[in-house]
Amino acid sequence: MNDYISENKDRFVNELLEMLRIPSVSADAKFKADVLRTAEFVQQKLTEAGANNVELVETAGNPVVYGEKIIDKNLPTVLVYGHYDVQPADPYELWNSPPFEPVIKDGNIYARGACDDKGQMYMHIKAFETMMRTNTLACNVKFMIEGEEEVGSVNLGTFIKENKEKLQGDVILISDTGMLANDTPSITTGLRGLSYVEVEVTGPNRDLHSGLYGGAVANPINILCKMIASLHDENNRITIPGFYDNVEELSQEERAEMARAPFDLDKYKKALDLTDVHGEAGYVTMERNAIRPTLDVNGIWGGYTGEGAKTVIPAQAFAKISMRLVPHQSSEEITEKFKKHFESIAPASVKVVVRPHHGGEPVVTPTDSVAYQAAAKAYEDTFGVKPVPVRSGGSIPIVAMFKSELGLDSVLMGFGLDSDAIHSPNEHFGIFNFMKGIETIPLFYKHYAEMSRKS
User: I need a surface site. Which of 164, 308, 360, 373 has the fewest CB within 10 A?
Assistant: First the structure.
């Protein structure tokens, strides 16, 4: 099997580069044709790899690519999930090379979607091809590759409800997470949930001259900034009433176990060009970005931002705000609490509108399952060390949905690194990581099949 991977390494990489050239940005309608073109690319490569019944399943939005290979109904079935859409590449001027013209530098592929999630999703297709060509496929496999993950998987729930029989399996396998380092593999065992909203603050009925009206009329930008600033207290705790009501509090023993994961604070600060870290009092960095809820402004705008000066009091100001949630918090409840609170702190001089965008639920996956143990053994085989279980600060909203709708737990076998700059300019993915994924994934199938027979 490893000989096949080595012999086809250049082709595997070149195929990924081809897909990365397609700007499949799901958040921007002008890329709609490119999103569809990427779906067709995935469909073609799944077919070429040896999958059966490969199709583009239409949804109210972007299609889901489905394919399968059922070799023996007595064997366990692995349902592979991934996504072919990517984040917007803005701001383009901060990229060292064009985001949809991938380049290889210092062993990394630089392009939007290189790590999130095209590179990691494509590992599974090439691992499947490898197993098919070397006659080593040990489990049945189904693929469900969607095109709306970066906009909240808005139509995936309907797809799953309408295709429960088709999607029946034993475990869901996902590579949309990371690992601690190339010499310290890890398996993600927890994900935060998400509540995403947009707020609008309106003052006068038009932009006003800041000299003639300044001091007499509320400035929506000033008001919005004050309202946002009030959402955290002096200890960086979120001030929304009831926000922490259902937050899971880990025991000291659990926190001590988390602290065993290798983490160098000085390297962390140096990589981000920071003089110090920031966050909720009473928690260390690895806890703040994994087991604690957060509230962050993702974008804020209003008034004049062009070249030169234009002295106006803007009529409106806007912000996009995301809240990362931890186990037992409900995205729907948190969104409603945010809306009620934000509207309540607005002065009478402005009007406020809160528009919920999308959300997802937090999840913790078991570490005592056959699937987790199979994944751990696969990493140990290829990296030479046991992987560390870690909780991620990111969100994959559909993981909780998979559990509630299909009754299946997920195994999160990520191969990216925190330094891969996902969602940021100059996103990249190591060729080492890409190839290591292709090498490790087949071993998960092998060990999962063997362990399932024994259990």
Answer: 308
> 146-180: per-residue pLDDT in tens?
999 999 898 999 999 999 999 999 999 999 999 99
Q: Which of 337, 319, 339 lies closest to 329 in space, CA to CA?
A: 337
**Which amino acid does the sequence have at 406?**
L
Question: What is the per-residue pLDDT across 392-412, written as a single tens digit (0 to 9) for each?
Answer: 998 888 899 999 999 999 999
Residue-range domains of the chain with CATH = 2-191+363-454 (3.40.630.10), 193-247+293-360 (3.30.70.360)
**Tokens coding 23:** 């700007």
Q: Is the pLDDT of residue 13 over 80?
A: yes
**What value does the mean pLDDT of the chain take?**
96
User: Residue 280 pLDDT > 90, yes or no?
Assistant: yes
Q: Which amino acid is at 280?
A: E
Distance CA 24, CA 149 (A): 12
Separation between Cα atoms, residue 133 and residue 125, nearest integer Å: 12
Close Cβ partners of 420 (under 8 Å, ≥ 6 residues apart): 114, 115, 116, 178, 427, 428, 429, 430
